[in-house]
Specification:
ten-stranded antiparallel sheet, single chain, 330 residues, 14 strands, 22% strand
Length: 330
C-alpha cells in the first residue's frame, strides 16, 4: 500500500469542457530541478558557514589557553633569569674588583657588560612585550657568560705566569669566624665617633687560630699603644700588606717567613676592643682596601654580593647620621 501517492495535476480544457491531466514539460522539470539544487546549495552553505564559525571559536579558545600558558611560563622563566643575573653580577663585581686587577688587566666596562652583543643600542627597542624582553635578556646573559668565560681564561693564563706573586697574594680568610663588621664608614663601637673602618672584624672566641692568608715576611709583632693591642703585620712583598689585631698571642717573630695557611697567632680581646674578635686589614701600596674582595676561595658569589650590598647600606646610613649630627650652616 502506498502511503504517499503523487496526485496528478489537471487543467480545464474549455474546448472540450473537461479536465485533462497536465503533462510536465522539459522546461518545468528543469526549473524544479534547478530550484531543488539551489535550495540544497543554500542550506549546505549556511550549514558549512555555521560549522566553520564553530571551529574558529574552538580554535580561538585553544589559542587563548595556549597563549596564557606560554605567558605564565615566560613569567616563571623571568624569575629564574633574575637569579642568574644576580649571580652573574656578583661574578662580574668580583672579576672587576679582584681577579683582573690582581693580574694587571683592565676592568670590563659596565656599558659593555650591560649592553650585550652589538652594544647597548641593540636593546633600545620599542617592543616592550614580555616575549621580546625575555629574548633580549637571554641574549644579554649569554653575552655576559661569554665575557666571564674569556676573562677567567685570561686571568688563569696571567696567574700561571705569575705563580710566585699569586702564592704571596692574601687570598683566604685568616680565621674561622663570622664577619660582624665590614670595611667602610661606621660609628666606632667604643668612641662613638664616625670614622673609616679600615678592615673587617671576625667574631671568634679567645684562642681561635689565626692563619697567614698568603706567603709573606713578618715585619712587626707585639703590643702597641694605638688600640690594636697585640698585633701581627705581614709584608707579602708584592705591594700587599696585612694586619691582624686584638690577638691574645703571636707565635711568629719579626723577619720570619710564613706560608699561606701557616699559624701566626691566636685571637683575643686586647687593645681597644668591646669583645673577642679579630680585626683584619689589607693594604696595597700602603693604601687600605676592602679585604672582602680577597676571600675568593671562601665566599660563594651570593654571600659576597650580600655582604657588599650590606656594607654599602651601612656606609650610606652612617654618612646620613653624620650629616644629621653636624651643626646647621647658614
Amino acid at each position: 500500500m502506498k502511503i504517499f501517492k503523487r496526485r496528478p495535476k489537471y487543467h480545464y480544457d474549455q474546448e472540450t469542457c473537461t479536465y485533462v491531466p497536465v503533462r510536465p514539460t522539459g522546461a518545468s522539470i528543469a526549473r524544479k530541478i534547478g530550484s531543488s539544487l539551489l535550495f540544497v546549495l543554500v542550506v549546505g552553505a549556511a550549514a558549512w558557514f555555521g560549522f566553520d564559525q564553530f571551529l574558529v571559536g574552538i580554535q580561538e579558545q585553544v589559542f587563548q589557553k595556549e597563549q596564557s600558558q606560554l605567558l605564565t611560563q615566560l613569567e616563571q622563566a623571568n624569575v629564574t633569569l633574575d637569579q642568574y643575573e644576580a649571580r652573574l653580577e656578583a661574578y662580574y663585581q668580583r672579576t672587576n674588583s679582584f681577579y683582573r686587577p690582581v693580574v694587571g688587566e683592565a676592568q670590563i666596562p659596565s656599558s659593555y657588560w650591560n649592553g650585550g652583543r652589538g652594544g647597548s643600542s641593540r636593546y633600545d627597542q620599542t617592543d616592550t612585550s614580555l616575549p621580546n624582553k625575555t629574548q633580549l635578556r637571554i641574549e644579554r646573559i649569554a653575552h655576559q657568560i661569554e665575557l666571564l668565560r674569556n676573562s677567567y681564561a685570561l686571568v688563569g693564563e696571567e696567574a700561571a705566569s705569575k705563580e710566585t706573586a699569586m702564592r704571596n697574594l692574601p687570598s683566604i680568610m685568616p680565621v674561622n669566624g663570622e664577619l660582624i663588621s665590614m670595611y667602610g664608614m661606621r660609628r666606632h663601637p667604643v668612641t662613638g665617633r664616625h670614622k673609616l673602618h679600615e678592615g673587617v672584624d671576625f667574631a671568634c672566641g679567645i684562642g681561635t687560630p689565626i692563619y697567614a692568608p698568603g706567603d709573606a715576611l713578618v715585619i712587626s709583632t707585639g703590643d702597641i699603644a694605638n688600640g690594636y693591642g697585640i698585633n701581627v703585620n705581614l709584608d707579602h712583598q708584592n705591594g700587599y700588606k696585612t694586619k691582624f689585631a686584638h690577638l691574645s698571642r703571636a707565635v711568629v717573630q719579626i723577619g720570619q717567613r710564613v706560608k699561606r695557611g701557616e699559624l701566626i697567632g691566636y685571637s683575643g680581646n686586647t687593645g681597644l676592643s668591646t669583645g673577642p674578635h679579630l680585626h683584619y686589614e689589607v693594604s696595597l701600596n700602603d693604601v687600605k682596601i676592602d679585604p672582602i674582595d680577597f676571600f675568593y676561595q671562601d665566599l660563594p658569589p651570593r654571600e659576597y654580593r650580600r655582604l657588599k650590598l650590606d656594607k654599602q647600606d651601612v656606609t650610606v646610613q652612617v654618612l646620613k647620621e653624620k650629616l644629621s649630627d653636624s651643626p646647621a650652616m647658614d
